[in-house]
Write a structure and sequence with these properties.
The protein has 1090 residues and is of the alpha/beta class. It has 42 helices and 25 strands. The strands form 6 sheets. A 7-stranded parallel sheet has the order 13-14-12-15-18-11-19. A 6-stranded parallel sheet has the order 3-2-6-7-1-8, with helices on both faces. Strands 20, 21, 22, 23, 24 and 25 form a 6-stranded mixed sheet that branches.
């Protein structure tokens, strides 16, 4: 049955002559509308390069492409990407104007934070060593340098996320003068009033206690009165605080008004002094932040690194240049999830829409804006809507909910009309689309609180959730995999995990937290700690007890007390094995790269086998594999040895790094999923359990706050209080939206779980005074709609019977390991680059070293003669290729060559520049270039083409030229060779050309007329005669090759044989075995390693 849009959807799809703001409620078919609108634009005659679609995640972009491809097969050149991917393209397209290395690399989040911390520590340490008094005062306030550094990093990242581009605090002299005058006037007023009050109060009838207070005030005042005006601000503030405290308390009726007035006057003066001090304290903070920013920016630039904030900033700067903006011929821009954009992203979209002929289509839901911590501002979406309406555009609300049961939709409407009643975002009710079932879809799972704390109540709440899940599975027929437990925060998730384990319920935690806390990961870390320090008894005992060796508790007791004669034979054998493996593994730790050491550790200890038999063994194995993968990723970024990697891992643990458990590869794995609400955004589940609803809002604010409109504010100042109130109001509003997102993930059933009955909670207060979602829910329940929900409390036995599968797993004897050989690698949709497949075709063993082990490849020696200069062949090739790659008719060639040389970090003599000019000029004057220039050259044509639905082939062709006969593919080569060597070298690129021909044919849907290689140094064009004729055969080869690589990856190097021709290889495979053997012998002669 075809797609039949609702009237609102039809408008959103078909209106293309004006800007549109589409408010898409939860489950309203937003993605389908985006896809159909895109297809409609193409059918109306707009070209793919005239339509830009921006999505929030890569997954959403890929999903949108796949859906559109079902209607429009030739979709590979479609501009559908995340905002950051588009920014990356803009920056990569204009490296000259951006003044960056065109081969820049994107920072991983952990990398950028590690570098930022390192730089902040350097800046603060240097300032302290140079005797900077202001920084020393800050250091004393935070006690330890590392605490000050951590705080500076946090405030820096907060300011960056809010779009700050300047960190120095701009203090206006007139503000200082005004505050100074106000403080002086208050001082004078206070001095006069105290001088009048003291003689008068002595004439009054005073209790003994109050007489003592008056004497203290008089003594304090007389001590400081004469020098009051000249006291330093800090000492003056301390004096005023003491006076305010003494004027407080209970006074006799006839004295109370005067004492109260004096106390208020002291507090007002104290506030003025605090504001003055705050301004002076902000100066050094701003100065340090600015220094950190400069060093961080310069370090990134020097290393060719960019983070996401850099991408946005540079892209906006580039698009502000009319000539750059003119290179993008967009006529329609589709912006998805617009409620989560920030101010700078909005600037970027506005620049793209500067031409009135460009039409903007904005779709989002302000009720689902939940990313303030990343800098998203829902006000940007609301203001965009107002702007669209004011410019003759239209606002459309997609009100139909296709996802959830009507009972769920109606419950949500009733509850959130109350919860969001005083919000700036007007709650627009959704309309149920599905048929009603006639029974409640919402359960309120109530855990009575009684006299217990929230922590104690959580344990019973978690047990109730476990019992409810068993009921859903055993009595109602749901699968575990259809149930998802959502959490607002993962602080207490351990309690719920333990309850699920006790109930025998299989689960996986995908929350982005807790990975390094898993037992199997802690076991690995403990073993590494023990190998680093033989005297680390805690780690040692943990390893002996773990699945590595499985020493019994009794055996561990006798061993720890030095009574080995009491050990049984099995425990003795385990200890012998541990001590036999220890020296070998200790050597491996200090000599092998981290991932290779880890693989040796796992293999020699049978850790896979011993872990697999434990409860939830499949998930544990997946977590171990993820840890190994993490080690390889760190290794590829230069963290070679385990000691270096541990520094990152321990930092991630300390700062609760966002690492979730490995996702089980088998999508049919029948497990309950635990995840955060943020992680569930955009997803839907048959059954949703929202746990820990009683968690109270903390609203903790640090000693510094920042808002772009107010700037930095320091604790206790007037500005701080103002910013705090604004931030608190926005946090409460976002909490409402987060609850809305959680509730609307459910398709069939929703369970809201919390501690406390309505009578215990006393929810009659105003909503802003309630501190938990559980209170909000009870306060907003529709009393006249009780057919929409049920209130339940389950009886929970102290010991829940384990499910059969869990019982079986738990009963396995760890002393009898199950051997698991060659565990298959975990693949979902796999991506292969053209270069990697070309290398595999040349030599599978070379592919294995480079792409599986990630061993760096040495540069092959030049095969040709070398020109008489100090300019090396690699640098010469890079410069020439960079010039030809970025060559455009309007380009200033001198400027382009200067830039290409600077990218190599070189300063060349005139003779060397002349050599480069001769090579480039031969290319410019070639018949190919002159002919192609007339036909229009497309440069750097990127593609991502699927092979069936299992593999993605990615790459970029240097140039394609279209004419009436089809498409000519040209790839520029800078191999430093002679003309005689061209045929031999060109043969090594045979598969590259075949894959290019296949990919461009699939992407453009046009025949390939020629595939050519232009060898620039000998100035020879090589034409492949048959690559473009073998499209079906190439696709079959790709399918078989990718499958073969996957299958062989589990078997190590044996699955990747060597070939005889090593001409173009940077590895000397035949020497590796001999070198390895010699290295082992060398180690054996070193004796014991410390």
């Amino acid at each position: 049955m075809g797609f039949k849009p609702t009237p609102e959807q039809a408008e959103a799809i078909s209106i293309i002559d004006r800007d549109l703001m589409v408010v898409a409620g939860a489950g309203s078919g937003k993605t389908k509308v985006l896809v159909e609108r895109y297809v409609n634009l193409v059918e109306q005659g707009f070209k793919l390069n005239q339509i830009l679609a921006i999505t929030f995640t890569r997954k959403a972009a890929l999903e949108m492409k796949e859906r559109i491809r079902q209607t429009l097969p030739d979709m590979e050149q479609a501009q559908i990407s995340t905002i950051h991917s588009f920014c990356q393209k803009v920056v990569a397209d204009h490296p000259l104007q951006a003044k960056i290395d065109p081969h820049f690399r994107m920072f991983e989040e952990w990398e950028s934070k590690a570098l930022l911390k390192l730089i902040a520590m350097e800046v603060v340490t240097q300032a302290l060593q140079q005797g900077d008094e202001e920084i020393q005062m800050l250091r004393e306030e935070y006690r330890q340098t590392k605490d000050l550094v951590a705080y500076l990093v946090n405030i820096y990242q907060l300011m960056i996320s809010k779009g700050a581009d300047c960190f120095t605090v701009d203090i206006q002299e007139h503000d200082l003068e005004r505050l100074g005058r106000e403080v002086t006037i208050l001082q004078q007023e206070l001095a006069i009033e105290i001088d009048q009050w003291l003689p008068w109060v002595k004439t009054q009838k005073l209790s003994a206690t109050k007489l003592q207070v008056v004497q203290q005030i008089e003594e304090l005042w007389s001590t400081h009165q004469a020098a009051f005006n000249d006291l330093e601000l800090v000492m003056k503030k301390e004096l005023i605080e003491a006076l305010a405290s003494l004027f407080g308390g209970r006074w006799a009726k006839e004295l109370a008004d005067q004492a109260k007035h004096l106390k208020e006057l002291c507090l007002e003066l104290k506030q003025g002094i605090t504001d003055l001090l705050g301004i002076h304290q902000l100066r050094p903070i701003g100065r340090v932040l600015e220094t950190i920013h400069e060093h961080y920016t310069n370090r990134k630039l020097a290393q060719g690194l960019l983070d996401y904030d850099d991408l946005e900033r540079i892209a906006v700067q580039l698009l502000s240049i009319p000539e750059v903006r003119a290179t993008y011929d967009f006529k329609h821009i589709l912006l998805d999830e617009a409620q989560d954009t920030n101010e700078r992203q909005k600037q970027l979209i506005d620049l793209l829409c500067a031409d009135p002929d460009v039409k903007l289509f904005v779709v989002g839901d302000p009720k689902q804006s939940i990313y303030r911590f990343r800098g998203a501002e829902v006000e940007v979406f609301l203001e965009a809507g107002e702007s669209i309406i004011n410019s003759q555009g239209k606002k459309i609300f997609l009100k139909d909910n296709f996802r959830s049961r009507p009972e769920l939709v109606n419950f949500t409407n009733h509850v959130f009309e109350k919860i969001m009643a005083d919000d700036r975002i007007e709650y627009e009710a959704s309309r149920p689309f599905r048929e009603a079932c006639g029974r409640p879809a919402v359960d309120l799972l109530v855990t009575p609180r009684g006299d217990r704390s929230l922590g104690e109540g959580r344990q019973e709440e978690a047990a109730q959730i476990g019992a409810l899940i068993r009921e859903l599975v055993e009595q109602e027929g749901y699968r575990y995999s259809e149930i998802t437990i959502l959490f607002r925060a993962m602080t207490n998730v351990k309690i719920y995990e333990e309850a699920l384990q006790l109930a025998g319920i299989p689960f996986v935690n995908l929350s982005g937290h807790g990975f390094y806390d898993k037992n199997e990961i802690q076991d690995l870390l403990n073993f590494i700690h023990w190998l680093q320090d033989a005297d680390d008894l805690v780690s040692k005992m943990a390893v002996l007890r773990s699945p590595f060796f499985g020493l019994s508790d009794q055996g561990l007791f006798w061993y720890q007390h030095g009574q080995r004669e009491n050990l049984n034979q099995l425990d003795k054998d385990k200890l012998v094995r541990a001590y036999q493996l220890y020296p070998m593994l200790q050597k491996a730790l200090v000599t092998l790269p981290a991932p290779q050491f880890l693989e040796q550790l796992l293999k020699t200890t049978d850790f896979y086998a011993n872990t697999a038999v434990l409860p939830l063994g499949q998930q544990r194995i997946a977590n171990i594999d993820k840890f190994v993968d993490t080690c390889w990723q760190l290794w590829s970024k230069g963290y070679i040895h385990m000691e270096e990697q541990l520094a990152y891992i321990l930092d991630a643990i300390e700062h609760e790094g966002r690492e979730g458990e490995a996702r089980l590869d088998n999508e049919t794995a029948d497990v309950v999923t635990l995840m955060t609400i943020h992680g569930s955004k955009g997803l839907e589940f048959p059954v949703v359990i929202l746990a820990d609803c009683s968690r109270e809002r903390t609203n903790r604010f640090g000693s510094l706050l920042y808002r772009k409109d107010e700037g930095l504010a320091i604790k206790d100042t007037t500005r701080y209080q103002k910013v705090k109130e604004l931030e608190l109001a926005e946090e409460i509003n976002e909490d409402k939206r987060l609850l809305y997102v959680a509730v609307t993930r459910a398709r069939e059933r929703l369970v809201l779980s919390g501690i406390g009955t309505k009578e215990e909670l006393k929810v009659e207060r105003p909503l802003h005074e309630l501190v938990s979602w559980w209170e909000w829910i009870w306060a907003s329940l529709p009393q006249d709609k009780q057919e929409l929900y049920r209130v339940r409390t389950l009886a929970v036995a102290e010991q829940v019977e384990a499910a059969p599968a869990a019982q079986t797993a738990a009963s396995n004897d760890l002393s009898v390991p199950i051997v698991i050989n060659n565990l298959p690698p975990k693949y979902d949709i796999s991506s292969f680059s053209v270069t990697s497949l070309m290398i595999y075709a040349q030599c599978p063993r070379r592919y294995y070293y480079r792409y599986i082990l990630r061993v760096p490849e040495e540069q092959a020696a030049s095969n040709g003669q070398r020109l008489a200069s100090e300019l090396g062949p690699l640098e010469r090739g890079n410069i020439v290729h960079r010039v030809c790659e970025h060559l455009r008719p309007e380009q200033d060639l001198e400027q382009l060559l200067d830039w290409a040389i600077s990218m190599e970090g070189l300063s060349l003599q005139q003779a060397e520049r002349q050599e480069l000019w001769e090579i480039v000029n031969r290319y410019l004057n070639s018949a190919y270039y002159q002919d192609a220039k007339i036909k229009q050259i497309n440069h750097e044509v990127e593609f991502t083409v699927p092979v069936e639905e299992q593999f993605l082939i990615t790459g970029a062709v240097d140039q394609i030229v279209e004419d009436k006969n089809g498409i000519t593919i040209m790839d520029l080569k800078t191999n430093y060779i002679t003309a005689e060597q061209v045929p031999e070298v060109a043969a090594s690129y045979y598969w590259q050309l075949r894959i290019y021909a296949w990919a461009i044919n699939k992407s453009f849907g046009k025949p390939i007329s020629k595939t050519m290689l232009y060898f620039l140094f000998p100035d020879v064009i090589h034409t492949d005669e048959d690559a473009h004729l073998l499209i079906p055969e190439t696709e079959e080869w790709l399918r078989n090759t990718c499958q073969h690589i996957q299958q062989c990856a589990a078997h190590g190097g044996e699955g990747f044989p060597m070939i005889d021709d090593c001409t173009f290889c940077g590895y000397n495979c035949r020497q590796l075995g001999k070198a390895q053997e010699n290295f082992v012998n060398l180690l054996a002669g070193l004796g014991k390693l410390s």
